[in-house]
Amino acid sequence: MKNKTAVPTTVYEGRYLRMVERGSWEYVERTHASGMAAIIIAVTPEDKVVFVEQFRVPLQASTIEMPAGLVGDIHAAESIELSAIRELEEEAGWTASHAEVLMIGPTSSGMASEKVAFVRATGLSRVGAGGGDADENITVHEIPRTQAAAWLVQKMAEGYELDAKLWAGLWMIDHQLDGTPRG
């Protein structure tokens, strides 16, 4: 493959993203973080799934997502697990006594070099209201686990954009990666 051995060329570099051309392929890279994001799968002690809602400029629409954030955007040496707990606290107002990386994979393998880690947060306790940092306006939703899929379908019908990773996260609440039920 010619793109595999081609030397990358920076086409454009902004404050947070760099557009790269490698052979005939164009893609983006992050310039201020590790190139990894974490999506946090969190279920409260009341058996409610934690979701966040926020307006996303690229889509010009409100989205429903699981709490998530960049790894290494604030503390370069921060682990995926600590980043996930920090983002869960910041966005949703919950902390976790334990965070476990379940899997890592590309977010959009044809467009970006970024990868995402699915992180299961357990031992949750409320530490605040959430809502994000000063640049964010996040609404927290806590939906009973047994009603979460139907709630997401309802939000989609209302015009919300749904992050497709939500469905993988919901599946991971009740299953191990090999498909067996989570005990």
TrEMBL record:
The keyword 4Fe-4S does not apply. The keyword Ribonucleoprotein does not apply. Keywords: Hydrolase. One of its GO terms (molecular function) is hydrolase activity. Residues 33-166 form the Nudix hydrolase domain. PROSITE patterns: NUDIX (PS51462). Pfam families: NUDIX. SUPFAM superfamilies: Nudix (SSF55811). InterPro entries: NUDIX_hydrolase-like_dom_sf, NUDIX_hydrolase_dom. This is NUDIX hydrolase. It comes from Pseudoxanthomonas gei. The lineage of its organism: Bacteria, Pseudomonadati, Pseudomonadota, Gammaproteobacteria, Lysobacterales.
